[in-house]
Amino acid sequence: MSFTETNINIFRMINDLGKEYTFLNPPFIFIAEYTVYLLALATIVYWFTREYKNRMMVISAGITFIFAEIIGKLAGTFHSNYQPFAELANVNKLIEKTVGNSFPSDHTILFFSFCMTFWLFKKGYGFLWMIAAILVGISRMWVGVHYPADVAAGALISIVSAVVVYYVVPRISFIQKLLKLYEKGEGYILPSKSKSKDF
């Protein structure tokens, strides 16, 4: 069986579940479309804990996303495909999506960039973030807008980027100085908080 056939078969297996278990469609639509707002809220909360480690984590996640997006766009120039609903018949399409290159999945890149970074920094319960990212990846296939290869490529790019950034960015003195400068300025606006500790 060719890679293309495997890619389509796995997509069909996941997407067709929405036809069989229709009661699961609303939760997967929510995960596919709206968990991005929960991720944004969590990121804001982490930032305003005003803890140095949390802020360095948010900065690292943002840099990871930028790098992963750049790599993803480059990958998209070497390989491209339209969304499954635009190429296949009888797709269970549950959300509106414009037709374009769906490789790799930007949504997956965003979630794995942040969730992998959160896991690396938080350890322990941080694995819950990775479960959330995996659910988002599955949901994009469930609602009919991405192939497994789109999701897998986005996840792989983001995971590798997150690991590299985790070991490099927090140790860059320029980033540390910028954060401390920001916190100093913030201190003039917000009530004082206990002094930040170096990462």
Automatic annotation (TrEMBL):
This protein's record includes keyword Transmembrane helix: yes
InterPro entries xrefs: PAP2/HPO (IPR000326), PAP2/HPO_sf (IPR036938), UPP_Pase (IPR033879)
SMART domains to which the protein is assigned, alphabetical: acidPPc
One Pfam match: PAP2
Phosphoprotein as UniProt keyword: no
GO cellular-component term (any): plasma membrane
Keywords attached to this entry: Membrane, Transmembrane, Transmembrane helix
Signal peptide residue numbers: none
Phosphatidic acid phosphatase type 2/haloperoxidase domain mapped to chain residues: 61-166
Ranges that cross the membrane: 28-49, 56-75, 103-121, 128-145, 151-169
Entry GO MF terms: undecaprenyl-diphosphatase activity
Identification of the protein by name: Bacitracin ABC transporter permease
Naturally occurring in which organism (per UniProt): Cytobacillus solani
